[in-house]
Amino acid sequence: NIDPRPVFTSYLGVILAGAMFLALGLLVSSWVKSQLVAWMLSLLLGLGFVLPAALRWQVDSGSNWDAAVYYLAVPEHFRRDFTRGVIDTRPLVLYATVALCCLYLTVRSLEARRLR
After folding, report:
1. CA atoms of 63 and 52, how far apart (whole Å)
2. Cα(34)–Cα(2) distance, rounded to whole angstroms?
3. How confident is the model at residue 58 (pLDDT cuts 50, 70, 90)?
4. Residues 6+ apart with CB under 8 A from 114
5. Is residue 69 helix, strand or coil?
6. Are 94 and 16 in contact (CB under 8 A)?
7. Contact 27, 112 (CB under 8 A)
């Protein structure tokens, strides 16, 4: 038997993290004209949310750095919470705020480009 709670929370996490990364890519794409440059910059900015998980082993657990790494690292959210069926509001707030801020800035960037 499959427990439905971890399945639901994992899907929720994937959808929200995907929305965050897509909004980040849209923002970068609105800034530059070249698709290749937009892809590279989006990848670099997206790695800022993935690579802290690779540095987790160098940080003492329970320290302030560990809390910062947990808050920023998307793979850590899945390792600790989503795949276990736990809905923690901290990753949800991170994904929603980054996505909404990026979408807002994308609209402003496109409006500024249109007015020029």
Report:
1. 15
2. 45
3. confident
4. none
5. helix
6. no
7. no
pLDDT at 95 > cutoff 80: yes
pTM across the whole model: 0.87
Task: Give the dihedral of Cα atoms 60, 62, 92, 101; nearest 10 deg.
Answer: -60
DSSP state, residue 87: -
Structure tokens at 98: 């980054």
Q: What are phi and psi of 61, to 5 degrees?
A: -70, 140
CA distance 100 to 82: 21
Reduced DSSP (H G I as helix, E B as strand, rest coil) percent helix, strand, coil of the chain, to 5 = 80, 0, 20
Residue 72 tokens, joined: 């920023």
